[in-house]
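Just wondering, does anyone understand what follows?

——
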Amino acid sequence: MGLFWSLLSAFLWSTTFISARYLLAGKLVDPVTLSLLRFLIGGALLFIVGIVIHRSRFFAMKLADYLLLAMLGLLGIVGMSVFLFWGQQSTSATNGSLIMQLSPIFILGLGLFIGERLTPGKIIGCVLALSGTLVVVGVISLQGIALDSGRLIGDLLVMVAALCWAMYTVIGKPVVERVGSYRATTWAMLLGTLELLLLRQVLPMPHIWPEGGASWLAIVYVGVFPTAVAFFAWYEAMQKIPLALLNVMQYLTPLFTILLAWPLLGERFTWEKWIGVGIVLLGIVIVSLDDAGRKRSRSLSSTTPSGTGTAECA
């Protein structure tokens, strides 16, 4: 069941990029409005489930935690979503999905500021992931290096979204440990929705309110399945399989995106880009496995001779 839930979350997250590309490339909605509607729907559903599961404990947090989650909402909800959807106006669904998978690399870099240490495995993984990404987005090819790609601006915006998510992950670690992943994510999503509503009111840019059944069907789908259901599936999987395996399973998201983008959006991959995808995923897996091995070693070294002990909190 753990593998089922993790596969479900990876697949549903891949459909975010397909649906967003359809809506944004067709100018059926703008990035801020799409972000607002997505997290309004998804956050409301997660809130209802949270009330059912946790009851009054769902609100049992300190004011400082609510304030921190509001700040995290600016990074992980507002920043991540707006930059991602802004970038997807001009870049492909497959590029967006793959670039977002660089978050573990950014998390590694940010970790240096809080005492994390680089290892040879992590360095190799980072170099591979970044090199593979440059191949996929067309900066590196057999013809040499080209920086005038028509999708370059969109790719860079998605990269900023991945950086926002990495900052959300690193900064949010203490509050997640205090209140739990589900509550932290749900409240960050709800508070981020309020921030998106405010941003939509003050941002001096034209906003496109969706019209027509097809647009609303796609938006409701994004809010329900790749948001509420996917996050719920992630937490179910987290309780049933090791986190290292769960993280590796999520690297199937760009592969699912590629397979869906071909028939649904007409996005085709050359053999060069397939090689780039393989290099990216190999690099990220190396980083994740290196990190998991380090944590496991620290856990074993903290065990008492009698065989009982507690693992060091990493």
